[in-house]
Amino acid sequence: MTRPEEVRDCLDQYVEKELFSNIPKVSRPTKTNCKYYPTIHDLRIHISKTIVSQKYSSDDQESLKQKILEWEKQGKGKYFFRARSDGEKGKKEATEDKFLFVHQELWQDALEEIWLRIGTNGCYIQDHQVCNAPFLCLCPHQCGI
């Protein structure tokens, strides 16, 4: 749920049906009480902060790691995975590893092997905007790139 209007509707229902269901309507907080009825602006801020805090969730990275192990058992390609880390805390020069996931399909690997065998000096670059396919950039070692 990322739309503030949806969150507001759920909060309204929660306040009315859960928190104050046994209290007469006269004694319930008014809709202008920001403690129980936050503004759309406040909800947007909370939603944004939540999304950012979950951006590098260790749960997601662990799930991806499990998926990669599953794919490797099926022999569907080559994978490289580096989880995000904040480095060692307390040190002045803490290193931060950024998230990286690389996947090479079997056909891409086969194409690279063919190019290496014939010794071509060209590079194959396919632009997704031209042919509606995923971006592919395959540069054998002979390209000099």
Question: What does the secondary structure layout of this molecule look like, with pairings?
Answer:
Elements: H1 4-19, H2 40-53, H3 58-74, E1 77-82, E2 100-105, H4 106-118, E3 124-126, H5 128-131, E4 136-138
Antiparallel strand pairs: 1-2, 3-4
What does this 3D model show about the protein?
- The chain is of the alpha+beta class and 145 residues long.
- The chain folds into 2 domains: 4-53, no CATH class; 58-86 and 94-143, no CATH class.
- The chain contains 5 helices and 4 strands; from the N terminus they run αααββαβαβ.
- A two-stranded antiparallel ribbon has the order 1-2.
**Through-space gap between termini:** 44 Å
Sketch the topology as an H/E string, one letter per element: HHHEEHEHE
Relative helix content: 40-55%
Give the integer mean of the pLDDT values. Answer: 76
The strand order across the widest sheet is 1-2
Fraction in beta strands: 5-15%
Radius of gyration: 26 Å
Q: Would you count the extended β strands for me? A: 4
Which regions are unreliable across 5 or more consecutive residues at pLDDT < 50? 126-136, 140-145
Number of helices: 5
The main sheet comes to: 2 strands, antiparallel
The figure for the number of domains is: 2
